[in-house]
Amino acid sequence: MVLLALTILSLIGVFVFLIKLGILAQHRVHIKRGQYSRDDWPSVTVVIPARNEEHNLKVSLGSILEQDYPADKLEIIVVDDFSEDKTRQVAQQMMSQSVFNARCITGRPLPKGWIGKSNACMAGALQASGEYIFFIDADTQSDKSMLKSIMDFTLAKEIDLLSFNPRQLMVSAAEKTLLPGLFLSIASFMKFHESNDPDKEEAIANGQAMLFKTSAYQAVDGHTVVASEISEDLAFAKAMKERGFKIFWAFADNLMSTRMYTSAEEIWHGFSKNMNRIVEVNCFSQALALLGKSLFIAWSTPVLLLLSWLSYSSDPSQIALFTIGINLLMQIVLLITYAVLATQLFVPIIYAAFVPFGISLQGLLVLNSFRLAKQKSISWKGRVVE
């Protein structure tokens, strides 16, 4: 009877998890490539904060310099945030022959209470002249029609802050093993449809790509409003929405791509910066509960399937047979879900079998993130973030 009770509990948990994912899939909004008919384009300033990004910049800046946007309407600013490599030289060399108004500036000294990235973004914004300001990470790569596509989308919907999810590239075995499940678990906490609803409190943004209407950005004092926030993207979305500005979250797999991390170590350290903020965990008991939840979702079904089989082997009862059937059905549904996920993330379908490891990882990341938050400082890109 204990096995049956655990099976029913697992069934409910997995069902709720899948329902959340189904709602997420139903409300996904995709920005389509190249579907626009306008001739009059607003001026845009693309700001790329860069600290020790000499290798990534060749791709990210290179793809921005190839945009099919009107030359007189696009300004590109790379903010060299006191890099210790050849970031500045690479940027200057690449922009020297550009048809756009492109330049590399030196970031401003880090004021007390500011996070490095927000400070670099603010330095770029202070020199921006566009009607829109588009902040992108230095490890992104854009399709040449990206800028026109997102601007057309933004203008059509009269958006003040557009943020979107690029295609997440996964190359190494560690990325393919851990990231699909981790992304899936994170997504189960997101309410994209509520973020896009002005009457709901939910506010989501992605710091990899944030397009602001300049007047709205300035109305909230720019990055000053999120100066001390490690998760400045989520904080910015919340600040904009609270002040009555229209924010919108979308997907743009065909317009931009990025490779966030290249190894298990980078994944661990990178997501440990702010995982507790992403899932809004504020105390140790919440972190511990989330760890239990992630382990339960990831492993309850296969473990119960094994236990049911062992129980039936020793005592072939109807209850044991029933639990085998229920757990087997749930496992098949989960594997199909994981296979669809792998396909959508462009990784080999064999990695669907490893999705539970990524789901489990989120709980561990939340605990580590909470631990680091209590230390009140972490190291990132050679700086101590307090």
UniProtKB/TrEMBL annotation:
It is found in: Cell membrane. Its main location: membrane. Keywords: Cell membrane, Glycosyltransferase, Membrane, Transferase, Transmembrane, Transmembrane helix. The keyword RNA-binding does not apply. Residues 45-160 form the Glycosyltransferase 2-like domain. GO terms for cellular component: plasma membrane. The chain crosses the membrane at residues 287-307, 319-339, 345-367. GO terms for molecular function: glycosyltransferase activity. Pfam families: Glycos_transf_2 (PF00535). This is Glycosyltransferase 2-like domain-containing protein. It comes from Photobacterium lutimaris.
